[in-house]
Amino acid sequence: MSIPKLEFPPFHLPADAEALRVEVRAFLKETLPTVRTEDRFSSWNTRSADFSKALGRRGWIGITWPKQYGGSERSFLDRYVVTEELLGNGAPAGAHWVADRQSGPLLLRFGSEEQRQAILPRITAGECFFSIGMSEPDSGSDLASVRTRAEPVPGGFRVNGTKVWTSGAHNNHYCITLVRTSGQHGDRHKGLSQLLVDLKTPGITIRPIINLAGRHDWNEVTFSDCFIPESALIGNEGDGWLQVTSELAFERSGPERFMQNFHVLRELVRVLGRQPAKRASAVLGRVVARLWTLRQMSVAVAGMMQGGKSPAIEAALVKDLGTIYQQDLPEIARVLAESDATTEEDMADFLDVAQYATMMAPSYTIQGGTTQVLRGIVARGLGLR
Amino acid sequence: MDHDTREMLIDTAGRFFAERCGKDIVNGVEKGVWPAEFWNEIEEMGLPLVAVPEDKGGVGGNLADMMAVLRLAGANAVPVPLAETALANLLISAAGGTPSPGPATVALGGLAFSNGRVSGKVDRVPFASVAGRFVTVAPSSGKAVVAVIVKANAKVTEMPSHAGEPYGTVVFDNAACEVSAASAVSADRALELAALARAMQMAGAADKVLATTVEYSKQRVQFGRSISTFQAIQHMLAELASCVAATIASAEAASRDADEGGLADGGSFSIAAAKTQASDFAQRIAAISHQSMGAMGFTHEHILHHYTRRLWVWRRDFGSESFWGEKIGAAVAKAGPQALWPSLTSSKYAA
To answer: ipTM of this model?
Structure first.
């Protein structure tokens, strides 16, 4: 009896990555006190252009990229450490997050030399921010059904269509946009391409989509006879699906899939006081053990990636477990604080934090691949489909 | 033991368990039949002496080697005290002693040692009625002592576990020790090592549950097709795979940390977290596998219960998720909110 193995061999971050951690912590200790407390509660969802610029000056954005594009040529594991330290300390890293995580790597791998030279050094300086143009009103989990069309015209493309859930489009500089450049709507994976779209291009309208918590992160981005120059095509015409899949692997494997609401856990520790009741300690410890395990698995995935493997199934599995954990956390914490917070005042403060976290929680298992999409990927990994 | 020797040991042990530890042996133990020949073969392979140095008659492996063997034992529901004897032998040899042959077990917690004698009662001692020797680590005037008590000096009341293994309550009434010596590890540490052993067995059992369930779902045809082709089943099995992967990953990380950090206190935090996680995931793993396998998996005839019942029992052995969770939670709370993140990244209790 044999089934494909999904193993996460224990992996040690190397000494130079741990040395970098010390540097990053010292930097954050100096920088973060000036950041508003409420902004530290949402880390990679909170933007601060100043913070991104300061981080860029340290060489910690695009840290793995070649020096000729402003990178530091450090390892993927160094990047992992920077990322998790930003999350663990509640740094407002939202402005550059997408550019560092997926847009830059995508350009590095598939972009033209001209695109790389024009864009990558600005990303690493913490001055150029990206949105993801994948989802549409009629294309969510079924991404291959996108309808936004880029019709070849002399010198470029004429783009028509609508993208939705486009985080930060109202603040960002570029949006890597998945469009149909050839064939028909029903052609699925064929005929799709990605365009490097300057969000200031005439013909683009950006309208806010407010989420249930009252936040304006998302936008609807409409293209009406919008001219995009040929030089904005990323990679080859028709390779969009391949490129977008590789981009999604970066999007799924990171520690932000279980560290997004870490502040809830840290706040819970604060309000429970230094000597909680036995039962409360046990609940707290079980949550901490769960997070510790997720981190072990995520570090193992980083180790596989550094070793040149493509652990797409393992990454999907960690995102599934991690986002469910994140969804459970505010509930476990809320119930525990109701009974075990040390003071009424602490409890009231904490319940506000937990309430906000509860409102944000539904998004965790939707963004970057729903639970059901991820389980489909894991099922394929088990040889079931 | 070098890498190749270790790989060979794991490979040999895995094949041996798969071939020899059949349904008859596991069901036999539940009916009270001691598989003497099977145990002898285990001893001939040196498995209870994996982590005992060669100059003490052992195989000369390290703690991680022993844990790797125990994961395989878990994956084959090996119904004899291999984990307990291997740990007992490790404790004895680390204290300078030379282990004796035969099945042994560990009786941890609640015992007092004074003037060369042991007193006290320990509940739920695994394999209490088949062990020839009981090994404990007990505090004695500020230090820890390893003591070996032969069966004749212990009073055992058999209380089989819900997995059908011969657990029992053991009482020592000023019992004479066959051997006693200053221990290399504390009593608390002995419990940690036992918890790690169980977490690794649980990782093995969880892995087997996944393999069994996936295989079954591919073969079982309903409505004219394999049930594995139904999306509802696929999503259940994907969740099962996640729970199993997490159980294995945490146990393996703890095993590595314990081994690298040294016998006295390596991987203390990781072990607590791993046993908490293994115990926490056990129910979900059992529930999904049984739901996927329907009535077939609920029969005594099928082997699934060899693993799910063990997972349920092992949750409590050597500290449940409540016990270890409380230990972690109390330490985290004591250290305060700012120490939480550094503690997680270093896999250590805050100083």
So the answer is: 0.97
Phi, psi of B149 (to 5 degrees): -120, 125
Which residue, chain included where needed, has tokens 């090592």?
A: B193
CA distance B199 to B176: 32
Nearest to A317 among B217, B245, B277 (CB): B245
Q: Is the dihedral of CA A29, A32, A38, A41 positive or negative?
A: negative
Chain-chain contact of B329 with A320 (C-beta, under 8 angstroms):
no
pLDDT, tens digit (0-9, with 9 covering 90-100), for A279-318: 999 999 999 999 999 999 999 999 998 898 889 899 999 9
- Sign of the CA dihedral B106, B108, B110, B111? positive
The beta-carbon neighbor of B214 closest among A3, A266, A295 is A3
* Whole-structure pTM value: 0.96
Q: Where are the alpha helices (DSSP H) in chain B?
A: 3-20, 23-30, 36-44, 63-75, 82-94, 187-219, 231-261, 268-297, 304-314, 321-335, 340-346
Chain A residues in contact with B341 by the CB 8 A cut-off are 88-89, 262, 266
| Closest alpha carbon within chain B to A384 | B228
The type of residue at A10 is P
* pLDDT on residue A350: 86
Minimum distance, in Å, between the CA of residue A382 and any CA atom of chain B:
8
Let me know: does A13 contact A299? Beta carbons within 8 Å. Answer: yes
B228 vs A: CB within 8 A: yes
Which pLDDT tens digit goes with each residue over A204-240? 999 999 999 899 999 999 999 999 999 999 999 999 9
Q: Specify the pLDDT at position A39.
A: 64
